[in-house]
Automatic annotation (TrEMBL):
Name under which the protein is recorded: Exocyst subunit Exo70 family protein
GO biological process: exocytosis; protein transport
A Gene Ontology term for the protein's cellular component: exocyst
Native organism taxonomy: Eukaryota, Viridiplantae, Streptophyta, Embryophyta, Tracheophyta
Residue ranges of every copy of the Exocyst complex subunit Exo70 C-terminal domain listed in the record: 187-522
Cited function: Component of the exocyst complex.
């Protein structure tokens, strides 16, 4: 649909109807205008009668120019010139008044009711008397300058918000720019909203198309520049996991502000601003999906052999991924919108069997990333030559994963079935550690009245002492799991050793009492790394 130019709209002063009736005669109007101009005080407020008289002069001027008066042509021309000259002077004074009121209006339009009402009356008169272009031009110039000053004070530099500048910035500097953008975006949109409200109040008698066009001229360039920033960042930023949350923050902020943007810029000629906001959201979505893929790839590429941790402790990769996912879960709503467009791939067969809460794209994506992580942890566990230590490493890492999930929103995203299934796996790893680490030692304990009791006892003492030394750096990170393992090892060794000890300690030199064995196990599993 074609949009009528603002100049054409303003060229029809008869479309701007004054609400107040004109009651005085033309001579009274001339007297009021002449008196006001001759006694002009630039610091005084305007008089309603002056505005009314000015409007009356314009109406009379139109009447004289169109009517076939009985007066001579020269007399009528003289009166036309006189009224036109007086009207010009009146408009000059009204322009000064209008400018003064606009200077007085702050960015918080709600606190400037009187100033706005006065400016509205002046604008109404100027529009109705054929001086709409002058009025609107002054208004646009002043309010555009005011809006630009506000954005500068907020910290938005329009000159640096260009693609050729942004793509050359180092990440540390760009990161600060992104944070600044997300911090000031609500205030910038609020400033535009205030301008939108002010424009519609000042030009309340004007057609909506005029108000929209005036506001668009004031705010378009700066709004477009500001809303282009997220798109520029999304397009030129090289995807890497550490940049995801800045992108998500921009997406969330822009999504939250979109209703206000649509309200202000939803109709012509300002539709391009709304379109830019939508385009920025689309480019951010693509960039975020790309970074999520990079994150998965980074886990897969983490080296296996060169990164084993001492004592089977929690691997730094596990901590990094889980902290990352826990933070990611806080963006659940936005990620549902963003990830919904992910194309199907080879993961689909895995997802069909995944035991997830709702099968949403977010739960599926997080479950897949966890699957990739657990596969990587399995590979790293194979680097340990001791089976007990390998199981301990698996138990430590999976237990950490489960505690992290249960302590954040990931628990809701993945669901109880997924959590219970993997909690059971963590327990099996723990049982594997106990069995592979202590079952052989338990088998060495003497059986009553066996010929090789003494020989087996000495082997047990030697292996038990050796295990305490060699395993002193082993770690069970979770206190509850550590206590369970301790009790399981005690149950495996102490009762059998205690029974044999009571039967033979009077006849055989024994290195450890049952209490010694119990204390050593307690000390061994008593502290974490």
């Amino acid at each position: 649909m074609a949009v009528t130019p603002l100049r054409d709209l303003l060229a029809e002063p008869t479309s701007f109807r004054l609400d107040h009736p004109i009651t005085q005669s033309i001579s009274q109007s001339i007297s009021i205008v002449s008196s006001t101009i001759s006694n002009w005080d630039p610091h005084s407020s305007h008089s309603p009668s002056f505005l009314q008289a000015t409007s009356h002069l314009h109406s009379h001027l139109l009447h004289l120019s169109k009517s076939a008066s009985r007066c001579s042509a020269s007399s009528r021309h003289s009166e036309l010139v006189k009224i036109h000259t007086l009207l010009e002077s009146a408009m000059q004074h009204l322009e000064e008044l209008f400018k003064r009121h606009l200077f007085s209006i702050s960015s918080d339009v709600d606190l400037q009711c009187d100033e706005i009402a006065d400016a509205c009356s002046i604008a109404e008169t100027m529009l109705a008397t054929g001086y709409g272009e002058e009025c609107v031009s002054m208004y646009q110039s002043m309010r555009r300058s005011n809006l630009k000053s506000q954005m500068v004070r907020l910290g938005f530099d329009q000159s640096s918000n260009q693609a050729k500048v942004i793509r050359k910035l180092k990440w540390e500097i760009l990161d600060r720019h992104i944070k600044s953008w997300t911090d000031i975006a609500p205030a910038v949109v609020q400033s535009c909203s205030d301008e939108h409200q002010l424009c519609h109040e000042i030009f309340a008698v004007s057609p909506e198309s005029v108000r929209n066009s005036i506001f668009f001229t004031i705010s378009c360039d700066m709004a477009l520049s500001f809303l282009t920033f997220p798109e520029t960042v999304a397009v030129y930023l090289k995807p890497s996991p550490e940049k995801l949350f800045r992108l998500l923050n921009m997406y969330v902020v822009l999504s939250d502000l979109l209703p206000d943007i649509e309200s202000m810029f939803g109709s012509e000629p300002a539709h391009s601003v709304r379109s830019q906001a939508m385009s920025s959201l689309d480019k951010l979505s693509k960039a975020i999906r790309s970074v999520v893929s990079e994150f998965e790839l980074a886990i897969q590429k983490d080296p296996v052999k060169s990164s084993a941790v001492r004592g089977g402790a929690i691997h730094p990769l596990t901590r990094y991924v889980m902290n990352y996912l826990a933070y990611l879960a806080d963006f659940e709503h936005s990620l549902h919108e963003i990830l919904i467009d992910l194309p199907p791939d080879c993961k689909s067969s895995f997802f069909e069997q995944a035991n997830l809460a709702d099968g949403s794209i977010l739960s599926v994506t997080i479950a897949w990333i966890l699957f990739v992580l657990l596969c990587k942890i399995d590979s790293k566990a194979e680097t340990y030559s001791d089976a007990a230590l390998s199981y301990l490493f698996l138990a430590n890492n999976l237990q950490y994963i489960m505690k992290k999930i249960q302590g954040c929103h990931l628990n809701m995203i993945l669901g109880d079935d997924w959590v219970n299934e993997h909690s059971t796996k963590a327990r099996r790893f723990m049982d594997g550690h106990v069995r592979s680490g202590w079952a052989d030692m338990s088998a060495l304990l003497p059986v009553h009245n066996e010929d090789d009791d003494i020989e087996r006892l000495r082997k047990f003492e030697m292996n038990f002492e050796k295990a305490m030394k060699e395993r002193k750096e082993w770690v069970i990170a979770d206190a509850a799991m550590r206590e369970e393992v301790r009790l399981a090892v005690e149950a495996m060794l102490v009762p059998m050793y205690c029974g044999w000890y009571r039967s033979h300690n009077n006849f055989v030199a024994v290195k450890f009492t049952p209490e010694d064995v119990k204390k050593r196990i307690l000390r061994f599993y008593g502290e974490s790394d």
